[in-house]
Amino acid sequence: MKRIIIINGPNLNLLGKREPEIYGSNSFEDFFDKLKVKHNDIQLEYFQSNIEGELINKLHEVGFEYDGIILNAAAYTHTSVGIGDAVKGIETPVVEVHISNIHAREEFRHTSFIAPNAKGVIFGFGLQGYELAIESFL
Ligand code: DQA
Q1: What integer is the mean pLDDT of 9-21?
Q2: Catalytic (active site) residue 98
Q3: Neighbours of 21 (CB within 10 A)
Q4: Domain 3-137 is of which CATH architecture?
Q5: Which of 42, 44, 41, 50 is nearest to 31 (CA)?
Protein backbone atom coordinates (compact mmCIF):
# COMPACT_ATOMS: atom_id res chain seq x y z
CA MET A 1 0.00 0.00 0.00
CA LYS A 2 1.38 3.42 -0.98
CA ARG A 3 2.19 5.81 1.86
CA ILE A 4 1.44 9.44 1.15
CA ILE A 5 1.47 12.35 3.60
CA ILE A 6 -0.01 15.82 3.33
CA ILE A 7 2.04 18.39 5.25
CA ASN A 8 0.47 21.79 5.81
CA GLY A 9 2.31 24.82 7.13
CA PRO A 10 1.38 27.93 9.12
CA ASN A 11 -2.17 29.22 9.42
CA LEU A 12 -3.63 26.34 7.43
CA ASN A 13 -5.12 25.07 10.70
CA LEU A 14 -7.50 28.03 10.30
CA LEU A 15 -8.89 26.86 6.96
CA GLY A 16 -12.62 27.48 6.82
CA LYS A 17 -12.33 30.46 9.16
CA ARG A 18 -9.41 32.31 7.59
CA GLU A 19 -10.05 34.64 4.61
CA PRO A 20 -12.78 32.35 3.20
CA GLU A 21 -12.99 34.45 0.01
CA ILE A 22 -9.46 33.21 -0.80
CA TYR A 23 -9.21 29.84 0.93
CA GLY A 24 -12.85 28.63 0.98
CA SER A 25 -15.13 27.72 3.87
CA ASN A 26 -14.21 24.06 4.41
CA SER A 27 -12.01 22.99 7.30
CA PHE A 28 -9.05 20.83 6.28
CA GLU A 29 -10.09 18.11 8.73
CA ASP A 30 -13.49 17.68 7.02
CA PHE A 31 -11.87 17.66 3.61
CA PHE A 32 -9.22 15.19 4.75
CA ASP A 33 -11.85 12.79 6.18
CA LYS A 34 -13.51 12.68 2.74
CA LEU A 35 -10.17 12.23 1.00
CA LYS A 36 -9.37 9.22 3.19
CA VAL A 37 -12.69 7.56 2.35
CA LYS A 38 -12.17 8.21 -1.35
CA HIS A 39 -8.60 6.92 -1.32
CA ASN A 40 -8.95 3.95 1.01
CA ASP A 41 -6.48 2.00 -1.12
CA ILE A 42 -3.56 4.16 0.04
CA GLN A 43 -2.19 4.99 3.47
CA LEU A 44 -2.91 8.70 3.67
CA GLU A 45 -1.68 10.84 6.55
CA TYR A 46 -1.95 14.48 7.51
CA PHE A 47 0.38 16.72 9.54
CA GLN A 48 0.06 20.44 10.21
CA SER A 49 2.37 22.78 12.08
CA ASN A 50 2.80 26.51 12.44
CA ILE A 51 6.45 25.99 13.37
CA GLU A 52 9.14 25.93 10.68
CA GLY A 53 11.44 23.47 12.49
CA GLU A 54 8.61 21.02 13.09
CA LEU A 55 7.89 21.00 9.36
CA ILE A 56 11.57 20.29 8.67
CA ASN A 57 11.63 17.50 11.29
CA LYS A 58 8.55 15.89 9.70
CA LEU A 59 10.12 16.07 6.22
CA HIS A 60 13.23 14.29 7.59
CA GLU A 61 11.10 11.68 9.37
CA VAL A 62 9.01 10.68 6.34
CA GLY A 63 11.38 11.66 3.54
CA PHE A 64 13.21 8.33 3.31
CA GLU A 65 10.23 6.08 3.99
CA TYR A 66 7.11 7.35 2.25
CA ASP A 67 6.14 7.17 -1.43
CA GLY A 68 4.98 10.77 -1.71
CA ILE A 69 4.83 14.06 0.16
CA ILE A 70 2.25 16.75 -0.62
CA LEU A 71 3.57 19.98 0.87
CA ASN A 72 1.74 23.26 1.32
CA ALA A 73 4.34 25.18 3.32
CA ALA A 74 2.04 28.24 3.17
CA ALA A 75 3.93 31.47 3.97
CA TYR A 76 7.19 29.56 4.59
CA THR A 77 7.17 28.65 0.88
CA HIS A 78 8.25 32.20 0.14
CA THR A 79 10.77 32.63 2.96
CA SER A 80 12.27 29.35 4.17
CA VAL A 81 15.68 28.32 2.87
CA GLY A 82 15.57 25.62 5.58
CA ILE A 83 12.43 23.96 4.21
CA GLY A 84 13.79 24.28 0.67
CA ASP A 85 17.02 22.56 1.74
CA ALA A 86 15.04 19.82 3.53
CA VAL A 87 13.06 19.09 0.35
CA LYS A 88 16.35 18.92 -1.55
CA GLY A 89 17.93 16.59 1.03
CA ILE A 90 15.25 13.89 1.22
CA GLU A 91 14.49 11.07 -1.22
CA THR A 92 10.70 11.00 -1.29
CA PRO A 93 9.29 13.14 -4.13
CA VAL A 94 7.48 16.28 -3.02
CA VAL A 95 4.55 17.89 -4.81
CA GLU A 96 4.10 21.53 -3.78
CA VAL A 97 0.47 22.61 -3.46
CA HIS A 98 -1.19 25.98 -2.91
CA ILE A 99 -4.91 26.49 -2.54
CA SER A 100 -4.87 29.95 -4.11
CA ASN A 101 -3.29 31.08 -7.36
CA ILE A 102 -0.10 32.48 -5.84
CA HIS A 103 0.87 34.06 -9.16
CA ALA A 104 -2.31 36.13 -9.23
CA ARG A 105 -1.50 37.58 -5.79
CA GLU A 106 1.20 39.79 -4.27
CA GLU A 107 4.69 39.71 -5.78
CA PHE A 108 6.24 38.15 -2.64
CA ARG A 109 4.08 35.05 -3.18
CA HIS A 110 5.61 34.46 -6.62
CA THR A 111 8.85 33.13 -5.11
CA SER A 112 9.15 29.55 -3.84
CA PHE A 113 12.15 27.99 -2.11
CA ILE A 114 10.49 24.59 -2.57
CA ALA A 115 9.61 24.58 -6.28
CA PRO A 116 13.18 24.11 -7.62
CA ASN A 117 13.37 20.74 -5.84
CA ALA A 118 9.73 19.67 -6.12
CA LYS A 119 8.46 17.02 -8.50
CA GLY A 120 5.81 19.53 -9.53
CA VAL A 121 3.69 22.42 -8.32
CA ILE A 122 -0.12 22.70 -8.27
CA PHE A 123 -1.79 26.00 -7.38
CA GLY A 124 -5.06 27.84 -7.86
CA PHE A 125 -7.46 24.88 -7.76
CA GLY A 126 -8.58 25.23 -4.16
CA LEU A 127 -8.57 22.06 -2.06
CA GLN A 128 -8.87 20.03 -5.28
CA GLY A 129 -5.13 20.69 -5.69
CA TYR A 130 -4.43 18.13 -2.94
CA GLU A 131 -6.46 15.52 -4.84
CA LEU A 132 -4.59 16.27 -8.07
CA ALA A 133 -1.34 15.84 -6.13
CA ILE A 134 -2.47 12.44 -4.80
CA GLU A 135 -3.33 11.37 -8.35
CA SER A 136 0.13 12.38 -9.52
CA PHE A 137 1.58 9.75 -7.15
CA LEU A 138 -0.79 6.91 -8.23
C1 DQA B 1 -0.96 29.38 0.41
C2 DQA B 1 -0.42 30.63 -0.29
C3 DQA B 1 0.61 31.34 0.58
O4 DQA B 1 1.11 32.50 -0.10
C5 DQA B 1 -0.01 31.79 1.87
O6 DQA B 1 0.95 32.38 2.71
C7 DQA B 1 -0.75 30.70 2.57
C8 DQA B 1 -1.49 29.70 1.80
C9 DQA B 1 -2.09 28.71 -0.38
O10 DQA B 1 -2.37 27.54 -0.11
O11 DQA B 1 -2.71 29.34 -1.25
O12 DQA B 1 -0.81 30.68 3.80
O13 DQA B 1 0.12 28.45 0.52
Answers
A1: 92
A2: yes
A3: 6
A4: 3-Layer(aba) Sandwich (3.40)
A5: 44
Integer-rounded Cα radius of gyration of the chain? 14
Q: Could you report the per-residue pLDDT of 27-57, keeping only the tens digit for each?
A: 999 999 999 999 999 999 999 999 999 999 9
- pLDDT of 24 > 90? The answer is no
Give the integer Cα–Cα distance in Å for 12 and 72: 9
- What is the per-residue pLDDT across 82-129, written as a single tens digit (0 to 9) for each? 999 999 999 999 999 999 999 999 999 999 999 999 999 999 999 999
Ligand 1 center to 20 CA (angstroms):
12
Element (H, E) at 97: strand 94-98
* Helix boundaries (H) for the chain: 20-23, 28-38, 52-62, 81-89, 128-137
Q: How far is the CA of 73 from the centre of ligand 1 (A)?
A: 8
